[in-house]
Specification:
Layout (H helix, E strand, L loop, with lengths): L1 H14 L16 H7 L15 E2 L2 E2 L7 H5 L2 E4 L2 E4 L6 H10 L10 E2 L2 H9 L11
Antiparallel strand pairs: 1-2, 3-4, 4-5
The structure holds iron/sulfur cluster (SF4) (2 copies).
The site of one iron/sulfur cluster (SF4) has 12 residues, from helix 4.
Length: about 130
């Protein structure tokens, strides 16, 4: 699992298509390991409200941000790994375009096989220029 989380994080960082709109900074939740890592900041999260650390388009705790934030727009659900909010999130759209170059349509969420992520990692060297796909 850790390896897959790392892979998701690496992909989202390398694609670098986030426009810092903050739409994903609403109601983040913490995993047990996040609570430990975040220390005193953990108590400031409120799962029913906007994140208190999103200030002027930036994450104030970027280096220690929770796991869900690190891997967004990927998300683990009980039935697998998904790419979510494809219509609302520019980063998700870019990832979708690269992962599924032949798909058309208006999907907002799609299941992603781990093997697809691994393939993507191998091609990562070309990610600075997604038009080469
Ligand atoms: S919704 Fe997508 S584009 Fe907007 S801040 Fe979050 S990751 Fe970036
Ligand atoms: S911790 Fe940072 S990245 Fe996560 S929701 Fe808050 S502001 Fe956004």
């Amino acid at each position: 699992m850790d390896k897959v989380l790392k892979l998701c994080e690496e992909i989202t960082e390398k694609i670098d298509a986030c426009e810092r709109c903050g739409k994903c900074c609403k109601s983040p939740f913490l995993l047990p390991e996040d609570v430990k890592r975040l220390g005193k900041y953990a108590k400031m999260f409120n799962e029913n409200g906007a994140c208190p650390f999103f200030v002027e388009g930036k994450c104030k705790i970027y280096e220690i941000r929770p796991t869900v934030c690190r891997i967004y727009p990927f998300m683990f659900l009980p039935h697998g790994l998904f790419l979510i909010n494809i219509q609302e999130c520019r980063l998700a759209r870019e990832i979708y375009r690269i992962l599924f170059p032949n798909e058309r349509g208006e999907r907002n969420i799609v299941k992603v096989a781990i093997t697809k992520l691994e393939e993507m990692e191998k091609r990562m060297i070309n990610l600075r220029n997604p038009d080469t796909y």
